[in-house]
Amino acid sequence: MEENQQKTKKISTKYQPKGLTLLYEDQDIIVVNKMSGLLTMASDREREKTAYFLLSNYVKKGSPKSKNRVFIVHRLDKDTSGVLVFAKTEKAKFFLQDEWQSFSKKYVAVIEGKMREKEGIITSYLAENSIHRVFSVRNADKGKFAKTGYKVVKESERFSLVNIHLFTGRKNQIRVHFYEQGCPVAGDKIYGEKSVGIKRLALHSAQLTIRHPHTKKEMTFEANTPSYFKQLIK
C-alpha cells in the first residue's frame, strides 16, 4: 500500500486464513492477495473453500457469536490470483460498488504467442450464452461494453508477458479479449486450447487503486507477480 494513505492496522496472524495473504485491514475494508484455485464466493459445488468463507471466519476471530462480517465487493475468477477487496460494513460495500468503474485495476498475464501490436486497447461488447461462455458481439444492444488496455513487456518463443489496464470489469473480459486476438491467457481451460502442461491460469490482479469508503482518500494495493509467470516467459 502507498505510504501517503492512512496507516495500516497491525495484522494479526493468529486466524490467518489459508489461501489468502492479508494486505490491509481497518474498520471498513479488508484487502487480500488471493491464491489461484480459490473461489471468491460460494458456488453450487463449493461452499467453504472460498475467500468469503475464510474471511468471514477470520473477522469473527474464533467467536461464532460475533457480529463481525465481510461483504463481497467484486470477484476474481477462481484461477485468477491477486488483489481482492472486501467491505466490513454494508455502507462501505455500497460505496465501493457504486464507485467501482472509476477505480484503477491493473493485471499481469502470460499469454500464448505474440501480439501483432505490442501496445493497444481492445474493445468489444461482451455477451454470455446459456452455458455461461462469454464472447464478443457487434450489436451494442446484445452485449456490455468492455475495454482492455495492454502493453507487452517481454516475449519468448512461445509466450508473452503483458501488463493490462482493465478499464471495465466484465465477466471473463481479459480472457475473452486475448482469446479473440488469437493469444489466449496461458493455462486457460475454457478459452485456451493450446495450453498443455501449464500449472495454472497465468492471470494476476497486480494492483488496485480505490477511494477509501470512509476517508475518501485514494489507496493503492499491490500483489507481487507470481514467480511462475517469470518461469513461463524464460
TrEMBL record:
<dbReference type="GO" id="GO:0000455">
    <property type="term" value="P:enzyme-directed rRNA pseudouridine synthesis"/>
</dbReference>
<dbReference type="Pfam" id="PF00849">
    <property type="entry name" value="PseudoU_synth_2"/>
</dbReference>
<protein>
    <submittedName>
        <fullName>RluA family pseudouridine synthase</fullName>
    </submittedName>
</protein>
<dbReference type="GO" id="GO:0003723">
    <property type="term" value="F:RNA binding"/>
</dbReference>
<dbReference type="GO" id="GO:0140098">
    <property type="term" value="F:catalytic activity, acting on RNA"/>
</dbReference>
<comment type="similarity">
    <text>Belongs to the pseudouridine synthase RluA family.</text>
</comment>
<dbReference type="InterPro" id="IPR006145">
    <property type="entry name" value="PsdUridine_synth_RsuA/RluA"/>
</dbReference>
<feature type="domain" description="Pseudouridine synthase RsuA/RluA-like">
    <location>
        <begin position="28"/>
        <end position="178"/>
    </location>
</feature>
<dbReference type="GO" id="GO:0009982">
    <property type="term" value="F:pseudouridine synthase activity"/>
</dbReference>
<dbReference type="InterPro" id="IPR050188">
    <property type="entry name" value="RluA_PseudoU_synthase"/>
</dbReference>
<keyword id="KW-0413">Isomerase</keyword>
<dbReference type="InterPro" id="IPR020103">
    <property type="entry name" value="PsdUridine_synth_cat_dom_sf"/>
</dbReference>
<dbReference type="InterPro" id="IPR006224">
    <property type="entry name" value="PsdUridine_synth_RluA-like_CS"/>
</dbReference>
